[in-house]
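note to self: dont lose this again. the chain is below, predicted strucutre after it. 104 aa total, dont forget to put it in the shared folder this time
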Amino acid sequence: MWRRVGDGPALGSSWEAQPGGGGTAAGPSLGLLLKLARGRVRAGAELGEMRARLFGQSDLVSVCDLICGQDLTPREAAGGAQVEAARIEAVLKVALDLLAMGRG
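---
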């Protein structure tokens, strides 16, 4: 979801869309562009809801973005520093607990 919202390829200009047909060298179909746009909007809304359940705490959001969004391990996110990796793991545990409580 995080990648779909912020890290995906640009949707492109609607000037490149091909009405009715499939994708061509000139551009994707309008239907495909609309489907991609709707998916990004839904993913953005869901990501916003999850971040709201973290009470806007920047450390919680940042750690979730690094670990869950960018698919890094705590050690990778900490640049190999063991103490920082342990802090990231502790913050991640709190964030995941808050997210899990909001689902029930």
